[in-house]
Amino acid sequence: MSGPVAAQSTEPPLAIVCGGGALPFAVADAVVHRGRRVVLFPIKSWADPRSVERFPHRWIVLGQVGRFLRLAEQEGCRDVVMIGAVLRPSLLGIRLDWATIRMLPRIARMFRGGDDHLLSGLAGMLEDHGLRLWGAHEVAPEILMPEGPIGRRQPNTRDATDMARGLAVLAATGPFDIGQAVVVADNHVLAIEAAEGTDNMLARIAELRRQHRVRTPAGVGVLVKAPKPGQDRRLDLPSIGPLTVAGVAQAGLAGLAVVAGGAIVAEPQRLASEADRHNVFVVGIRGTEP
């Protein structure tokens, strides 16, 4: 295991359980820059091996909670961050170790609900074993979306109306643990995110445009992302990155809006460049929660 050298710190190393995408490594870089050591626990088949090699790491397999607990103890980790893309697995499709098998009744109950229910149950399980779960934004607040635009373009009055409608829709659907994103065009709801995720939802809008099922002209409509009401923000905060911007452009939308302080931004400089290149706006807005 090798990786960047952190400044001296009296804190124990931070365990970062890594799914797919660039966010786990942005968080790791930010934590190291603040002077704290990290140990990555990348999930096989999800985390990028090339990026993982930059940091001390111990590979884990989805479903092997016992192995993770044992390795975290060996590394002296007491604090844990879980971040990165992982599709919700089938209970029958994960490889269980013996410690996990003993927890199986509890794990089965965790699977009987939406993603927030599953992730909150996992958080409770870790805490029962003496680990403290933190949100990525708590250990690296600089990754949160600021209020206001990123890039040159700004939303107009029609976009603002679509954003308000999108926030209202997400506030209404959030308690059902459905999704964190919606597409609204000219005050008309075109799509609500479900199990397919944001990128596939945007691809669906692009296909509907090709089929002439979307009547609004190109350059009209907004992707709105927000945390679910009452969501445990240590887990599964909405996130955006350059690929989100590309999806917004391919879907023929004007831009995207996320709740400032309630969403994570991957590669903000590249995101701004992509927004300017595609002539779409990216903006942080105030949410509906107090």
Secondary-structure map:
Layout: E1 14-18, H1 23-33, E2 38-42, H2 49-52, H3 65-74, E3 79-83, H4 98-102, H5 104-110, H6 115-128, E4 132-134, H7 136-139, E5 148-150, H8 157-173, E6 181-185, E7 188-192, H9 197-210, E8 222-225, E9 239-240, H10 242-250, E10 255-259, E11 264-265, H11 268-278, E12 281-285
Parallel strand pairs: 1-2, 1-3, 3-4, 8-10, 9-11, 10-12
Antiparallel strand pairs: 5-12, 6-7, 6-8
Helix pairs in contact: 9-10, 10-11
Q: What key phrases describe this protein's structure?
A:
290 residues; alpha/beta; six-stranded mixed β-sheet; four-stranded parallel β-sheet; 17% strand; disordered N terminus
- Unreliable spans: 1-7
Backbone structural class: alpha/beta
Write the element-wise H/E pattern from the N-terminal end onward.
EHEHHEHHHEHEHEEHEEHEEHE
Radius of gyration: 20 Å
Separation, N- and C-terminal Cα atoms: 44 Å
Q: Supply the CATH class of the largest domain.
A: Alpha Beta
Number of strands: 12
Helix percent reads 25-40%
Q: Indicate the overall shape.
A: globular
Query: What is the name of the CATH architecture of the largest domain?
Result: 3-Layer(aba) Sandwich
Looking at CATH, which topology of the largest domain would you report? Cytidine Deaminase, domain 2
- The H-level CATH homologous superfamily of the largest domain, spelled out, is LpxI C-terminal catalytic domain
Strand order of the largest sheet: 5-12-10-8-6-7
Main sheet overview: 6 strands, mixed
Count up the helices: 11
* Beta content: 15-25%
Mean pLDDT: 87
Number of domains: 2
Oligomer: single chain
